[in-house]
Amino acid sequence: MDQQKKLVVGWFSFTCSEDSTILFTELLNDHLDEWKKVVEFRYLKALKSKNEIAGLDVAFIEGAVSSDTQAEEVKKIRGHAKYVVAVGACACTGMPSASRNEFVSDEVNQKIAYYLHHFDYSQKVKKLDEVIKVDDQVPGCPMTVSIFLEILTKYLKLFNISPDA
Ligand code: SF4
After folding, report:
1. 86-100, 101-115, 141-155: lowest mean pLDDT where?
2. Among 6, 46, 79, 104, which residue's CB has the most CB atoms within a 10 Å radius?
3. What pTM was computed for the model?
4. Residue of 97, 143, 145, 148 best suited for mutating to test ligand 1, as the one with most atoms within 8 Å of CB
5. If you take atom 8 of ligand 1, which residue's CA is the nearest one?
6. Domain of residue 106, residue span
7. Which of these, 89, 81, 80, lies nearest to 141 by C-alpha position?
C-alpha cells in the first residue's frame, strides 16, 4: 500500500514573543488527528527535540529579524523551503518587535547603541520580506487563525495532498 503523501512543514521563531507558536500548539488540540495524516512537522522546536530543515515544502516563520545571524538563518531556511509564509505582525510588518527602530531620544539611543555594540543585534530590526522572498503572510498579533488555516489548506491543495489521496 502506498504511503500517504504529506506536506513537509517547518515552523520557526525569531525575534518575537512566540504567541503565534503558542496559538499554533493550541490549534493542535482540535486539529492534530486531521493534520498528522497530511502534514509532516519536520522542524518544530516547540514540540520536538529532533528537527531538520532539509526538504521543506513550506516554512512558517514567526518574528522579526534583529541580527545578522538571524538574517543568515532565515536565508538558510529559504534555501531549504519551496515556500515561505510570514506568520504574525512581527514577521509581516516588523512591529512591534521593530519598535527600537523608531526610538528618538538621545538617552534611549545611547542605551540602544550600547546593546547594539555588545550583543548580536543589527542596526535595524527587519520584517521578513526585507531579508528573504516571502510567498504568503498571516497577519495579526498574534496570527489570525482563520487566515493561517486558509493558507495551510491552500498549500495542501497546491501539493495535491488530502487524507483520501
Ligand atoms: S506578532 Fe505580536 S504576538 Fe506575534 S510575536 Fe509579534 S508581538 Fe508577539
Report:
1. 101-115
2. 6
3. 0.92
4. 97
5. 17
6. 7-158
7. 89
